[in-house]
Every structure is written in C-alpha cells, then in structure tokens.
Amino acid sequence: MSETPAPTGAVAHPDLLAVYVNDHIASAAGGIELVTRMIGAHRGSAHEDGLRQLLDELRQEKSDLTATARSLDLPVRQYKQVAVWVAEKASRLKLNGHVLSRSPLSSLVEFEFLASAVRGKRSGFETLRIAAEVDPRIDKVLLDSLIDQANRQFHWLTEARRQVAATIFGGDPGVLADVDEA
Predict the structure, then answer these.
(1) Dihedral through CA 32, CA 35, CA 36, CA 42, nearest 10?
(2) Rounded to two decimals, what is the model's pTM?
(3) Angle, in degrees to the nearest 10, between helices 140-169 and 48-71
(4) Which residue in 74, 90, 124, 131 could disulfide with 69, CB within 3.0 to 4.6 Å?
(5) Is 143 exposed, middle or buried (0-12, 13-18, 19+ CB in 10 A)?
(6) What is the pLDDT of residues 112-159, one digit of tens each?
(7) Which long-range contacts (CB under 8 A, 24 or more apart) does 142-151 make?
(8) Given pLDDT bands bounded at 50, 70 and 90, which one contains residue 92?
(9) What's the chain's average pLDDT?
(10) At residue 167, does pLDDT exceed 60?
C-alpha cells in the first residue's frame, strides 16, 4: 500500500481514510435503496412516515459524507456505490418461503438489518468525529449532530422492528420498552 503523507494538521493515513469514507458513502447509497423499497412495501402503514423521514436523512447524510470527502481532498469512488446498489438488488432474490409474493419475514429482516446498519453508521460518524480532533477540515458540529441523529434513528427502528415482530409472531413489543439498546 502506498501511503500519501498527511499534511500538517491533517489526519494520519489519508489513503485509509479515503477507503473508509467511501465505504460509508456506499453504505448510505445501499440504505437509500433499501428504504426506498421499504416505503413501497409499507405504503399506508404506521411505518411509512418514519421511513420517509429516514430516507430524507439518509440522502442528506450521503451528501454530508461526500462533502466531507471533498473537503479532505479525498476521491469519491462511484464504483463502490454501484457495487452496493447491485448487492441491494440481489438481496431481493433471497429464498424467503414465498415465490411470487413478499414474505412477512421480509419486513422484519429489513428492519433488523437497518437497525444494525445504523449502529455501524453511528460508529463511522464517531470515527470521523475522533479524526476531527486532528483535522480542522472535518466539521465537528456536523458529526455531533449526525451521531445524535443516528441514535434517534436506531431507537425508532428498534421500536418498529419490535412492532413488526409482534405482528408476525404475536406477543407484546412493549415488554422491552425499558431495555436500553443504545
């Protein structure tokens, strides 16, 4: 691996940071695709508005990450976004017990996946926030707000996932209301 030296007052290992930021931009692109599909599946349901808000936030986060990459003079790799887009489309082909229709499990798995992905995204924002301590080109205030937003998204997705699970299998999703999953 060739290492581009970091300018004074910049993050160490900018080549690694470029890979890292591009991976998170690509993940945001995949999240946008998944949530767009979920909105169609949940049209008219109690989850539609939350999914629409999540979609708007994901689009803004992707834009914010792209702007961060550019402010750091990092290349934005489109091929990674295309690869994630293809993977998201391929994930629809999974065997879910229904050949021609959507399985009720699809919603549960999608909400579970999104909740896990939001935790990973939050970790990425935290990593960038740490790097912002050594590189003034990284917006600390933006990252603090993105971390807070990811926490709120995770809590909403957790509640939605519990509701979907109770709808499919029965039970009371409220029994876990006091469980802290942050």
Answers:
(1) -170
(2) 0.84
(3) 150
(4) 74
(5) buried
(6) 999 999 999 999 999 999 999 999 999 999 999 999 999 999 999 999
(7) 142/64, 142/68, 146/61, 146/64, 147/122, 149/57, 149/61, 150/118, 150/119, 150/121, 150/122, 150/125, 151/122, 151/182
(8) low
(9) 87
(10) yes
